[in-house]
Amino acid sequence: MIATPAVEVTAETIETLVSTGGYTHPLFQRTDAGRPLPGQGLLLLMGGLVEQSGVLDHAIAMVEIRRVSFAAMVVAGTTVRVRLAPGASRTTSSGKTLQEWTWTAIDGADGVLATAEVLMLVNSVPHEEAP
Q1: What is the DSSP track for 43-72?
Q2: DSSP state string for 85-122
Q3: Which one, of 117, 119, 108, 111, lies nearest residue 78 by Cα?
Q4: Residue 93: how many other CB atoms lie within 10 Å
Q5: In angstroms, rounded to a whole number, what is the distance separating the alpha carbons of residues 17 and 35?
Q6: How far apart are CA 13 and CA 25, in angstroms?
Q7: What is the dihedral of CA 99, 68, 107, 62, to 10 degrees?
Q8: What is the number of other CB atoms lying within 10 angstroms of the CB of residue 40?
Q9: What is the DSSP letter of 37?
Q10: Per-residue pLDDT tens digits for 107-119
Q11: pLDDT tier at 125 (50, 70, 90 boundaries)?
Q12: CA quadruple 110, 54, 85, 90: dihedral, nearest 10
């Protein structure tokens, strides 16, 4: 199992993503400490943390998010990191690889926040190992 660096979700992060994303649901318009980060915002942070980890530096593109489930609300003060677990892979006709990954967002106490099954198109050999 691979773990990414962590990021702390702030009230400013939530405000920015809610206003930029145009969220209008009353849940996201709260002004108290219980105002949650939208699930799509959590997915955005997860993607950035995965990139920061370097694990997928050989990736070409995300092809698909197959399944996502949210287990807990994320509010300001929550620390988020992602555990990555590789799954099945197959080689394409062009010699690239389609690699399945499970991304699990966890908080500072290792509680599960969300899980996503992600399909990545990657070079078969990471750049740093290519001849």
Answers
A1: HHHHHHHHHHH-TTTTEEEEEEEEEEEE-S
A2: EEEEEEE-TTS-EEEEEEEEEE-TTS-EEEEEEEEEEE
A3: 108
A4: 5
A5: 12
A6: 17
A7: 40
A8: 11
A9: P
A10: 999 999 999 999 9
A11: low
A12: 170
